[in-house]
Write a structure and sequence with these properties.
Elements (H helix, E strand, L loop, with lengths): L7 E5 L6 E4 L7 E4 L2 E6 L8 E7 L3 E9 L16 H8 L13 E5 L25 E15 L5 E12 L3 H8 L8 E4 L6 H9 L5 H8 L12 E4 L4
Antiparallel strand pairs: 1-2, 1-7, 3-6, 4-5, 6-9, 7-8, 8-9, 10-11
């Protein structure tokens, strides 16, 4: 029988080697929470305000992790029960500050290549660009520990941790993934080998038939003759 894939937290310590914390028991639920900040623009006389997208909000992943050391025994005495905190403290330490970084370590929760969000680039013909993912880069935002079983000596043997992870992405990563386009502003495009005006218009405007606006703005008489390396102005269109 094939063993199930183990979920794990990959810890990217600032001054230590990368650590992989493999979970002995996989979580039974994953709860994602992603929102957007929307501003309301009130205009007198309208039935409802206009909505303006301001920015995305950091996504949160909440999961419950189960830990149990009763298989190692529950007897009293020095050689008896093994404390479950030897496992739970590995998770709890991820919310503590690294002295050299002055912040908790950056982590990534991974399980398999079918992670929620892995298919974003194939949805709606790639409308969301390359923002797909195979894991959840994050920092640990909250850890709630609940110990539910103890040995006769009071050694904790069983625990459930509710862990909240907050999405973490650097600025350069986000700019590369989003690759924003603004059809209402003039842009510059460096011609690559194989480029056509219709392909450039499709990327800039979402409509390849609007290539004439680019041709007019750059004085191009023959749209089939583009020189690799030349810079084209991509004007706004209405």
């Amino acid at each position: 029988m094939q063993q199930p894939a183990r979920a794990k937290l990959v810890v990217k310590w600032h001054q230590a080697a990368e650590e992989q914390i493999e979970l002995r028991y996989n979580p039974t639920e994953l709860s994602f929470d992603k929102g957007a900040q929307i501003a309301e623009i009130a205009i007198p006389g309208l039935d409802a305000p206009l909505l303006q997208y301001v920015r995305g909000q950091a996504e949160r992943l909440t999961l419950e992790l189960f830990f149990d050391t009763t298989e190692d025994g529950m007897a009293a005495g020095v050689r008896g029960a093994k404390s479950v905190t030897e496992q739970t403290d590995r998770i709890y330490q991820l919310i503590k500050i690294e002295p050299a970084r002055h912040a908790p370590p950056v982590c990534e929760f991974v399980w398999n290549d079918k992670f929620p969000g892995a298919s974003l680039s194939t949805v709606a013909a790639g409308a969301t660009g390359n923002q797909n993912r195979n894991g959840f880069p994050c920092i640990v935002e909250n850890v709630r520990q609940r110990f539910t079983l103890f040995s006769p000596d009071g050694v904790p043997l069983r625990a459930t941790l509710t862990v909240t992870l907050r999405e973490f992405r650097r600025l350069d990563q986000q700019k590369k993934q989003i690759n924003p386009h603004s059809p209402d502003r003039t842009q510059a495009h460096v011609v690559q080998r194989g480029d056509t005006l219709s392909a450039i218009a499709a990327r800039a405007y979402g409509r390849p038939d609007d290539w004439r606006a680019i041709a007019t703005a750059n004085g191009i008489e023959d749209p089939r003759r583009l020189t690799p390396g030349q810079t084209l102005a991509v004007p706004p269109i209405r």
